[in-house]
Design a protein that fits this description.
This protein is an alpha/beta fold. It has 7 helices and 10 strands. The protein is globular.
Length: about 210
């Protein structure tokens, strides 16, 4: 798995899907300053990286959730990854909307899902974990047995770890914040001394002391 984590980290950095800028932080909608910008949708427009990601997700599912019967993507970023990975694994897929439609059948779950089916949720990025847990809750309310989550990248924030544990669901990611920071330094995307600043941000995003560290 270590080789896969490094490969995906290199992939994401190479296409700017994960972009570090510790000296000129980005500002989140919440107002928090962040040294990292993430857009894993860019993997869809880079064929080789896309292959690495989708076959990597398929391998995670084979390894950790061999009983999987259906994949469900998160809306919207997880939909394409769920579809491609489901094609590789030859299993059905669907996705969960952010809310139920206000017309037609008023579905929130799109695609056929039978009560009792074993489901894996496909997500692109996990930060605080709130949105993916909402998807898990919707699927469970519909009678699915949620085996777990697979994702491309996780920050590994304390808040997400606690939320996932409370929801009694596990996540397996292709790579993580610590690995990407290490690889970014090795490849000169950032300075080696920036790693500690990045980890300080990850450990407590509300504490901005890393900016002047």
């Amino acid at each position: 798995m270590a080789n896969t984590e490094t490969l995906i980290a290199r992939d994401l950095l190479s296409i700017g899907a994960v972009f570090f800028r510790p000296d000129e932080p980005f500002t989140w909608a919440s107002g928090i300053k962040s040294p990292v910008y993430c857009d894993n949708r860019l993997t869809l427009t880079a064929p080789q990286v896309r292959d690495d990601v989708e076959y990597g997700l398929a391998e995670l599912i084979r390894e950790h959730y061999p009983e999987t019967e259906v994949l469900m993507g998160t809306s919207t970023a997880g939909i394409a990854h769920a579809a491609i990975t489901a094609h590789i694994l030859n299993v059905p897929m669907g996705y969960v909307r952010g809310g139920a439609k206000d017309h037609g059948r008023k579905n929130q779950i799109e695609g056929k899902l039978e009560p009792g089916q074993k489901v894996v949720v496909v997500e692109d990025l996990i930060s605080t974990g709130g949105s993916v847990i909402e998807v898990v809750d919707v699927l469970r309310e519909a009678g699915a047995e949620v085996l777990g989550i697979v994702s491309i990248f996780t920050y590994g924030m304390k808040k997400s770890t606690e939320r996932l544990a409370a929801a009694k669901v596990e996540n397996h990611s292709l790579t993580n914040f610590d690995i990407i920071a290490k690889v970014a330094a090795q490849l000169d995307y950032i300075r080696k001394e920036d790693i500690a600043r990045l980890i300080a941000f990850r450990n407590d995003p509300s504490d901005e002391s890393w900016i002047t560290a």
